[in-house]
TrEMBL record:
This is SpoU rRNA Methylase family protein. Keywords: Methyltransferase, Transferase. Pfam families: SpoU_methylase. One of its GO terms (molecular function) is RNA methyltransferase activity. Residues 7-139 form the tRNA/rRNA methyltransferase SpoU type domain. It comes from Roseibium suaedae. GO terms for biological process: methylation; RNA processing.
Length: 183
């Protein structure tokens, strides 16, 4: 899968949810994890993060939305139940993304929603657990941007295998190969 992504949460209050979300981020290959406006007790991995993700991906803790320091080009994708949010099954995931989920019993702050490039909702009848919502979004990203065979029209396994990625040749500029471009 190309690109990179991060997973984070704003205003979380439950350590178990944080640990479960961190474990899902690690399992799906996130490049870093972050919290925004979290209490001191939520600035480190809790016991529910059985994969011990901070040993495998950086954990950033920002005090506010204004303090968030994301890489250039990284698009913020808020996961929130708003009327104008994009339904997750119809959403095109950016290659460089930071997915941010809101707190339990609450919503993303107005400041965070203003920072978002996209707001996405999971089409459920009611709000679900923040850790579960994160896992669903990460699975959807993995499914959408990974190299998998198309789903069959009927039930069962795919009938065709996915095409293998083919790298292009070297990129030439003024008669010389540009380092790190092409293979």
């Amino acid at each position: 899968m190309r690109g990179y992504f991060a997973v984070g949460a704003e205003g979380l209050s439950k350590r178990m949810n944080l640990g479960n979300l961190m474990r899902s981020a690690h399992a799906f290959g996130a490049n870093f994890f972050f919290t925004v406006d979290a209490g001191n007790e939520l600035r480190r991995a809790p016991a529910s993060d059985t994969s011990k993700s901070p040993g495998h991906l950086p954990l950033f803790s920002w005090d506010s939305v204004d303090a968030m320091d994301l890489p250039r080009g990284c698009q913020v994708v808020g996961i929130e139940l708003t009327d104008d949010a994009i339904d997750l099954p119809s959403f095109g995931h950016p290659l460089q993304a930071a997915y941010v989920l809101g707190p339990e019993r609450g919503s993303l702050s107005k400041a965070m929603l203003a920072r978002c490039d996209h707001v996405v909702k999971i089409p459920t009848k009611f709000c679900i657990n923040v850790a579960m919502a994160g896992a669903i979004v990460l699975y959807d990203r993995h499914r959408a941007l990974g190299r998998y065979a198309d789903r069959p029209v009927g039930a069962g396994a795919p009938t065709e295998t996915p095409q293998q990625h083919v790298s292009g040749g070297p990129i030439m500029r003024r008669g010389r190969i540009v380092p790190g471009q092409g293979k």
